[in-house]
């Protein structure tokens, strides 16, 4: 069963910032970076349990899972028939404080 995927506002803002950064710093092909993230997010609708549960105990209790895509981590939760995308963060960021 395919689940509906919803990208929450903070995750939308993250994607816009990733797009701006990629253009500004010539850090790669924007279509490849952001397009790859959006494709991975869309795939979660079909394979919602493909991402493991996070290791951090507090975040695990809160129900977070993650998916790696390039240099970025997509944080999400499975809630009923939905996949909710909470944040899309660079791997080097201290994500524990941002969720």
How does this structure look, described?
By secondary structure, this protein is of the alpha+beta class. It has a single domain, classed as YaeB-like fold (2-Layer Sandwich), CATH 3.30.2310.20. 42% of the residues lie in helices and 26% in strands. Strand 3 (72-79) and strand 4 form a beta hairpin. The longest helix has 17 residues, at 30-46. The radius of gyration is 13 Å and the shape is globular. It starts with a strand and ends with a helix.
CATH superfamily: RelE-like
Structural class: alpha+beta
Overall tally of domains: 1
Question: What's the tally of helices?
Answer: 4
Annotated CATH architecture: 2-Layer Sandwich
Low-pLDDT windows of residues: none
Broad shape: globular
Mean pLDDT: 92
Report Rg: 13 Å
Q: How far apart, in Å, are the first and last alpha carbons? A: 28 Å
